[in-house]
Amino acid sequence: MIDLKQYGYIESDPPTDGLIPGRVTEVQRDQYTVITEHGEVSAVLKGAFHHNAQAREDFPCVGDFVLLQYNESGVSLITKLLSRRSKFSRADFSGHAVGYAKTILEQVVAANFDYVFIVTSLNQDFKVSRILRYLTQARQSGGQPVVVLTKADLAEDFDMQLLKVKQAAPGVPVHAVSAHTGFGLEALNGYLQPRKTVVFLGMSGVGKSSLLNTLMEQEVMAVKSIREDDSRGRHTTTHRQLFMLPCGAMVIDTPGMRELGLFAVDEGISAGFADVEELITQCRFSDCRHQTEPGCAILSALTNASLPRERWELYLAQRRENKYVEDKSAFMREREAFAKSIAKFSKEYNKHGRRMNGK
């Protein structure tokens, strides 16, 4: 028998009706792998689950705790998604660029983690602005963000990159590591503790798979070379999966993201740009647009360089994107509610109206 507490399970109410708890360790399309007291089992969602779920984010993802009807000789049925203590989401623009999306949905990447490792490499694709986007969403997730700069063995001098990240994200732990030489890995031990879960996030080719292989002390993920011209790689991880490390910690590995779409990140933006929003409160006018108004604290800070223009523009960009996603999502919810009301009216009319008309 497996002790599910080793996988971070905390029992609130004992399961009833013969159900047992489990944690989702892998999802491939409609097929789930779940670790239970009986070991790993294959599972699918019970039919009623599809009818009761309000939106796609209500479906289980890797890291979720669920209740299921256990079938010792076949496929088990997931009947309920247990409450999440943390989740990392992204905006799914349904294959369209921001500004042209027909629909925007919340895509939950991982759940029930303690730390978010934002992984990026110390090569020519290194961008502080991209790290800050991940940090904004990570702060919204409920987990503690940690920046991990990989491939330190390939960088002659990475002190400047470390300094840039620390200045842009004060208070966030930043570590430079090398999966090949082992440099800096001991600094990660404080996070990789038994029963703790870490989610790896980052673009393709940043070294997530190499880092996971090193931590697992065996090759569990294939590693592909990156392109020499821009230091970018192809997807190595094709689906999300939870791994139990030898030390007792767990890692959720995710496919590389070409671009992270921010989703519902008001609190994340405020936390990441607290200095900017503090300046805004100091403007003479409460409706200051920070363009030509007298007494604008933002314009003053930009003039004396106490607020870097790049940071201000990044703040504005994230606010604009978040507002677009919120407005688009609200519109989609209203349209869906309207469609449901029309369908309900039509159903009631067909049921009662025709009878009144003698049809």
Any overview of this molecule?
- The protein has 359 residues and is an alpha/beta fold.
- 30% of the residues lie in helices and 21% in strands.
- The chain has eight helices and 13 strands.
- The protein has helices at residues 47-52, 128-141, 159-168, 208-216, 266-272, 274-280, 297-303, 309-356, and strands spanning 20-28, 31-36, 39-45, 65-69, 76-81, 87-92, 105-111, 115-121, 144-150, 174-176, 197-201, 241-244, 250-253.
- The protein has a six-stranded mixed β-sheet, with helices on both faces.
- Helix 2 crosses helix 5.
- The protein starts with 19 loop residues before the first strand and ends with a helix.
Low-confidence stretches: 94-101, 227-235
Helix content percent band? 25-40%
Strand content: 15-25%
**How would you spell out the order of helices and strands?**
EEEHEEEEEHEHEEHEEHHHH
Please give the radius of gyration in angstroms.
24 Å
The total of beta strands comes to 13
Structural class: alpha/beta
Oligomer: single chain
Spatial strand order of the main sheet: 10-9-8-11-13-12
Shape descriptor: flat
Number of helices: 8
The averaged pLDDT comes out at 81
Question: What does the main sheet amount to?
Answer: 6 strands, mixed
Distance between the termini: 64 Å
